[in-house]
Amino acid sequence: MIDLHTHSNASDGTDTPGELINMAHAAGLTVLGLMDHDTVAGWQEAVQYLRPGLSLVLGSEISCETEDGISVHMLGALFDPEYKPLMDVLAKTRESRYGRMERIVGRLNDAGVEISMAEVYAQLSEGATLGRPHLADAMVLKGIVKNREEAFNLYLSNSSKFYVPHYAPTPVEAISLIKAAGGVAVIAHPLASLRGRIVSVESFKTMVEAGMDGIEVSHRDQTPEAQELLRGIVAEYGIIATGSSDYHGNGKLNQLAEFTTKPEAFEALEARADKRRVVRK
């Protein structure tokens, strides 16, 4: 089984990278993709826990925003972490999340929701990428909401009046950086309409022209109709269809390996990187 999109507590997952690796071994996965948001901080620990039988695809889920303000997530995998232009953009994105969080918390406070930045920071693992799930966890701990899902439904979704964007490259910029770093680029859950506004089907042409290698087709947040539409786009452009759990530990309902990537699709994706960077022991 191949699951190319999971998260650890180096971003907004709840398992450490080592715990995630152990769970992947226990679940019988053969390939696991670690895609923490805008960071490579979990890579080293994940490699340390790797054992024979499981291959590790290291990458990052890069926050992007289109020129008309639509949020897009681009999975960058198998890239060179020493490629400074990409690392600089990830660092700038992470840094901008702090000012953005202060503004969201301020808006909540103005509306009578009592939560502090200190309470949010208390939910953040050392070196982790700050995100709205950490605010959601603080709200759960304080009894404002029951769980992360309720926090996003009531307060933290992209369509909420409390939402504040942060710096992010455009999808084309992210793809160009990933490719320049020798990696592969796969757009994550592009038609997950419950997350807010989604990109137009027409926009895929520009992304493919920029070098995008694939589309995450099989994902719990995309309807069967949306998945069928995406398969058609994959066939039209001759790119690769992937499937993934987008596992976040107990932070989301998503279960490890609930959606997977076909072996032949993974082989084709790996072949598009400039070097063989899958980690095996």
Descriptive tags:
single chain; 281 residues; alpha/beta; DNA polymerase, domain 1; seven-stranded mixed β-sheet; 7 strands; globular
Describe the structure in your own words:
The chain is α/β, with parallel strands linked by helices and about 280 residues long. About 40% of the residues lie in helices and about 15% in strands. The protein contains ten helices and seven strands. Helix 1 packs across helix 2 (about 45-50) and helix 5 packs across helix 6. It starts with a strand and ends in a 10-residue tail after the last helix. The mean pLDDT is about 95.
Helical proportion?
A: 25-40%
Strand content: 5-15%
The number of E-state strands comes to: 7
Indicate the radius of gyration in whole angstroms.
18 Å
Helix tally equals 10
Can you lay out the helices and strands and say which pair or pack?
Layout (H helix, E strand, L loop, with lengths): L1 E5 L10 H11 L3 E4 L8 H7 L5 E11 L5 E7 L6 H27 L6 H5 L10 H10 L6 H9 L14 H10 L3 E5 L14 H8 L3 E5 L5 H14 L2 E4 L19 H9 L10
Parallel strand pairs: 1-2, 2-3, 5-6, 6-7
Antiparallel strand pairs: 3-4, 4-5
Helix pairs in contact: 1-2, 5-6
Short description:
This protein has helices at 17-27, 43-49, 84-110, 117-121, 132-141, 148-156, 171-180, 203-210, 224-237, 263-271, and strands at residues 2-6, 31-34, 55-65, 71-77, 184-188, 214-218, 240-243. It is an alpha/beta fold.
